[in-house]
Amino acid sequence: MEKILIIDDDPAICSSLSFALLNDFEVITATDPAVGFYYLQKEEIALTILDLYLGPVDGLQVLRKIRQFNPHAVVIVLTAYGSIRSSVEAIKEGAFYYLTKPVDIEELKALVNKGLELYHLQARLEILNQELKKQYESYGIIGKSRAINKILTLIEKVKDIDSNVLITGESGTGKELVARAIHYYGRRQKGPFEVINCAAIPENLLESELFGYQKGAFTGANRSYEGKLWAAHGGTIFLDEIGEMSLVLQAKVLRFLQDKTVIPLGSKNTYPVDVRILAATNRNLPEAIKQNNFREDLYYRLNVINIELPPLRERKEDIPLLVKHFIAKYSALLGRQVDSITPEALRLLLNYNFPGNIRELENIIERGVALATGREITTDNLPSNLQPLFDPLPMDIPDAIPVFIGETLDQVEKKLILSTLKKTGGRKKEAAILLGITDRTLRNKLKKYRIKEKKRI
Fold first, then answer.
1. How many whole angstroms separate alpha carbon 366 and alpha carbon 371?
2. pLDDT digit string (tens) for 221-270?
3. Residue-wise pLDDT tens digits, 358-378
4. Residues 164, 307 contacting (CB under 8 angstroms)
5. Where does residue 212 rank: exposed (0-12), middle (13-18), buried (19+ CB within 10 A)?
6. How many C-beta neighbours within 10 Å does residue 160 have?
7. For the chain, first and last CA: distance in Å?
8. Beta carbons of 159 and 185 less than 8 angstroms apart
9. CB contact at 8 A, 77 and 59
């Protein structure tokens, strides 16, 4: 029986709500938030009913503390009439729903049951995620293909050394995920991890974002800014899309790599910085060097160790694992009870080349979870560009059979033979004529596909 905690400073309300729910649940009440936290730590509480006005204590603060203690906590808040604004704030803070006083008991019961559905879904997803981690996940990277095992081996080798690493691969292959794995599983894990996207920041601002600036260094510099390199002192900085950096700034980054000192804009002082450099790009840097768009000396400084991430189309054996992971992730985030994908929908994903790689697959699964009407994602929930080029003919059209992209020729041939035999009433000679083959060929195919011949009376 699920345990429900009621936190309300009015003993009468605690008693009435407890009485209303006692037949179906084990109910614990607390008129003091501190007592409520005690039960939250000692008992497995499935759902909490929380009054937003607890005398001198702010219920929103109590809600925040509950969510900090357990980010997945299911909390229904109670509020008086005229305080809808605070109720909206509670929803923003992660409350499952709110009810106004006086409480409608039937409405409360319905909400409790819906909240418990979410609680059980989250519990199942947590178990699923733990299973995934035990079986196939290392450093937060999901996969069991040879290509992924090679990447994991490289991460293990480089995570505890300070050599610069250049991570290459198409957009959406998970370059930042690899960078985070190197930092958070390496010896610098207790230091900061700073990320800067060189393609997302205008060229005139990128230098100050990297190296920092002194107050008054330029128009609008109303305060001093330490910059990402100094902020990453003792840790790691990840320079994403390094191939988009201007040649002028490349020269300054090269100088930093040589002497590991920072000179903020508007300052004459140099500051030594202890930081590891991880960089990433989806560009072909050797080709960019030939076109004078990237410095060769900077390339060799960054590319001490190269980790090249394969596109998803080259590791399709990992797609079912990734799909399972993303279904679990977005079912929890969207509050949906979706836990699987149909074989037909998975076949479409396996036959797709994913120009956007893992990021595109994740977006597709998020859409599928959002649109699913049952517990599994179907082909109808996938984007149109994944669907067969030609719609299968409706089953009610005479002499038509559905053929789908992804089926093998043997599967299509077997389907055609069965349909033709059905049309001829099992008469093999007529079926062979319709199929344009000999009787002997038809018998061989019946044997090949293990199609039992029906006895005619």
1. 9
2. 788 888 999 999 999 999 999 999 999 999 999 999 999 999 888 888 88
3. 999 999 999 999 999 989 999
4. no
5. buried
6. 12
7. 61
8. yes
9. yes
Verify cis geometry, omega within 30 degrees of 0, for the bond prior to 102. yes
Q: Average the pLDDT over each of 97-101, 128-132, 304-308 and give the range with the smallest value.
A: 128-132
The helix/strand/coil state of 367 is helix
Q: How far is CA 152 from CA 57, 67, 138, 274, in A?
A: 49, 34, 7, 26
- DSSP secondary structure string for all residues of 61-93: HHHHHHHHH-TT--EEEEE-TT-HHHHHHHHHT
Both structure tokens of 175: 């370059």
Task: Check: CB of residue 66 under 8 Å from CB of residue 93.
Answer: no
pTM of the model: 0.58
Name the residue type at position 85: R
Q: What is the mean pLDDT of residues 295-323?
A: 95
Kindly report, residue by residue over 83-94, the tens digit of the pLDDT. Answer: 667 777 888 888
The SS3 of residue 43 is coil
Type of residue numbered 155: I
Six-digit token string for 66: 């509950």
